Amino acid sequence: xxxxxxxxxxxxxxxxxxxxxxxxxxxxxxxxxxxxxxxxxxxxxxxxxxxxxxxxxxxxxxxxxxxxxxxxxxxxxxxxxxxxxxxxxxxxxxxxxxxxxxxxxxxxxxxxxxxxxxxxxxxxxxxxxxxxxxxxxxxxxxxxxxxxxxxxxxxxxxxxxxxxxxxxxxxxxxxxxxxxxxxxxxxxxxxxxxxxxxxxxxxxxxxxxxxxxxxxxxxxxxxxxxxxxxxxxxxx
Amino acid sequence: xxxxxxxxxxxxxxxxxxxxxxxxxxxxxxxxxxxxxxxxxxxxxxxxxxxxxxxxxxxxxxxxxxxxxxxxxxxxxxxxxxxxxxxxxxxxxxxxxxxxxxxxxxxxxxxxxxxxxxxxxxxxxxxxxxxxxxxxxxxxxxxxxxxxxxxxxxxxxxxxxxxxxxxxxxxxxxxxxxxxxxxxxxxxxxxxxxxxxxxxxxxxxxxxxxxxxxxxxxxxxxxxxxxxxxxxxxxxxxxxxxxxxxxxxxxxxxxxxxxxxxxxxxxxxxxxxxxxxxxxxxxxxxxxxxxxxxxxxxxxxxxxxxxxxxxxxxxxxxxxxxxxxxxxxxxxxxxxxxxxxxxxxxxxxxxxxxxxxxxxxxxxxxxxxxxxxxxxxxxxxxxxxxxxxxxxxxxxxxxxxxxxxxxxxxxxxxxxxxxxxxxxxxxxxxxxxxxxxxxxxxxxxxxxxxxxxxxxxxxxxxxxxxxxxxxxxxxxxxxxxxxxxxxxxx
Lengths: 236, 490
Prior knowledge:
Chain A has seven helices and four strands. Chain A has helices spanning about 5-30, 50-60, 115-120, 125-135, 180-195, 200-205, 215-220, and strands at about 35-40, 45, 150-155, 175-180. Chain B has three domains: about 10-170, Four Helix Bundle (Hemerythrin (Met), subunit A), CATH 1.20.120; about 175-380, Cytochrome C Oxidase, Chain A (Up-down Bundle), CATH 1.20.210.10; about 380-470.
């Protein structure tokens, strides 16, 4: 054969080239990036995501929060994310290695959520997030975030004590209470877990995403000298 | 590759053309019917999503209609429903015509088409029901993916197989684009599926894979199909050859080599190695090379006969598609400029760039092809010429409004986001009027699509229309593909 075979071969090779560099090359380059063990704290970063937060990540995906919210803090060269207090610094690739499904997001119709757990750090943080999910317009007339009232259920109070986690909202009929479903609880646990407050010594030194070098993964898993303990900057 | 101008393509006797058309009639019409069904479904879902963006209380109570589900459902219905069905219908028709081959096993192919659509339907319902993976274009429940991939590959292989049966010794520019698109989609799709779902790569490598797939889905399926149609129809309808046809292979190969990298440009500023978006940005610039060649190829004949635009609505659709190809490639290069990416990334501007490919480029080309081929397949004229004109005006105006709104609105959004002193609530509030304008554009598209659907249903199924056409038969030459008999103007 002939010209058609040539077209096929060429088409195959053209795509192969970009595949070898981008998906495959990056998977080889930093797909093996390991967690950083902090000797002084005797902890590995990023922490493992477990329990309700892990289930919440699935809720986050199935409700499509990522179509309006990003989870990537860009450095000062790429925008005002830090000035907006969306993070203290740009996000590092290492911070995502434990996530089964990485959703960086492609559109910022809403604020970046990479550090939402650091912004919601008061005792009533969960309550505030529940209220936001239930009705974002409650204290903000122009809210554009959609309601997720279906993540809550109204329960009759007849013959029962009010639940501890019932929402204090005025729109509930008397004799009823409004409680988050298990999915809402997982989602909020997930949101509260989103905080990249640990500063990784290696990335801090480079302050750029890791270059695609193979040794990176080995280096990273080696214990760092105690002197490298990062200054854990207090959140505002 | 053959250096013969497109228009002197397959010129079999009318009997041969009739036999070819008869062999592909059922599968092409079935695919086209499904395509239009999905177009309407995607339009309805997309319109609901667009309204929700500025009026969040709209349909807010049902979980399955929440924005984060309706929007991906609309995207998937559009891409895998409209995009793939229309693309396959047109690919089948064009390939049979250009290769001069009759289709064997039309019945089986039709069954495969039905299977594809059952799969997509389950997928879209799955997204609405909460099985979405939230990976753009690959949201459909992952267990459906192998099934869909196999069905698609079978259909694609069948169409490619026409080449071997064909009587035509030539391979035209349209066919390079068709062949590679039919081959590229299963290739990127299976690679991305494997790396995201089967054996997921770790961390933000997933984002690299997703960006690579996201761009290539548009650039290696939607854009090549549009180009195949434009390369076929423009010279045919204008009666003029492609200008500098000998350059067309250069455009094809440079496009193939560089567009495959361009998706990485979307990752500017993301936590991935810096060389990745940089490589994508370089590729975006280089893409202006195939753009220039393609523009010379296509606009050469068009500019020589602008008057033809007035008389042929098919030509108008095809010309808009060619124009939007130019525009969307320029947008890619523009957003790769230093200083621009920081503004447009993660805003409506970049989303609009995707819509330019999906709608302006691809859908307009598919409309052109559908208006051209359907009457030739059923040997009847369209039910209503004014509905065709209405469709063109509505789709054109709607697309221009939506593109303008999202482009300008996205640019403002990006500039304000880059200024940390403007509170986020204000940034979001300032996008509102633009989002409302985009909804208006979407509404016009919806009405246009209805006109298209009604006309197609009437053309193929309406007994009165059939009887009327039989009573006043149009000379066979009008539909048995005049292009086969007419010698093109030198």
